[in-house]
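User: Predict the structure for this protein chain, please.
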Amino acid sequence: MDEQWITNQGDIERIHALCLQANNVIVVSHKNCGDATGAVLAFSDYLFSHGVSHTVCLPAPVMNAFRFLPGVEKIQSTPQSLDQVTDLVIALDAADARQAGVEKMIDHWKTAGIPIVVIDHHYTNDGFGTIHWIEKDASACCLMIYEYFKTIHEPITPSMATCLLTGILTDTGSFSNAATNYEALAVASELLSCGAQLSTIMNNTFRAVEDMASLRLWGKVLSRLKYHKKYGIAIACITQRDLCECGVKEGELESVANIMNVVRDIRAGMVLMELADGTIKGSLRTTRDDIDVAHIAAFFGGGGHKKAAGFSLQGTLLETEDGWQVM
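Assistant: Here is the predicted structure, written as structure tokens:
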């Protein structure tokens, strides 16, 4: 199937037509992200309203901070959820097949002639689908889903509005980072008028520490913070031992990299977290215009945005006299 790129309103309406004609749609995105989770759930509500059979899949269970989102119980996170008959795949807020957790299925779908629609705002997107709508200047994928709904005249319910506003708020750091622009603020206002639950979003995503165990883990991690003055980068490491000793689950310290950036001398923050599967997840954040953390992530095989990016490595973390090392 020839690749196609979305450039106008007619192309967006074609995606809508594909959705309505499909017998079974698989909707995918990446893990541990408010924009990704909000986008797939809002899109799921849209498909449900039109009676379209579909499955929503993420590579990992939804983290606690986003389990308040309406419809979250629909999300599946097992490899078997992708192994089903489908005639349309929708990938939201994912820069590549690996990030979306579909790297083992992508060739099969393409060989079978199944359309793979990619709607994304990562400038590192590698064009892994067959139909692409990439808005590299969009603050969040949820902004693009809002535009999609407006283009096809889809009513936005309070549940959909809450999901979309969650994505916009998390990707803009509650309107505090460089991704914030007029469009993000204007659409947020529209979503509030559609019934988005702002206080619920803020209480769950920006003001909540899960419990005392999470607070202890924050203290342990920040006490070992390493600052590399030459590069202006602060690095925090979270080991499996840390998680076990504090009784905290993976993914509950996603905001550490953001917190580090409130320190004036820090140009970028990096968090390295050991996962139970033998990999190390790296998260990079910056608020500066002269730093592109996506380039740093790309060096390690990852990607993302100029201000927020990530990568994965095989190995474990070891603290030495010279600092942390990946073994």
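The chain has a mean pLDDT of 88.
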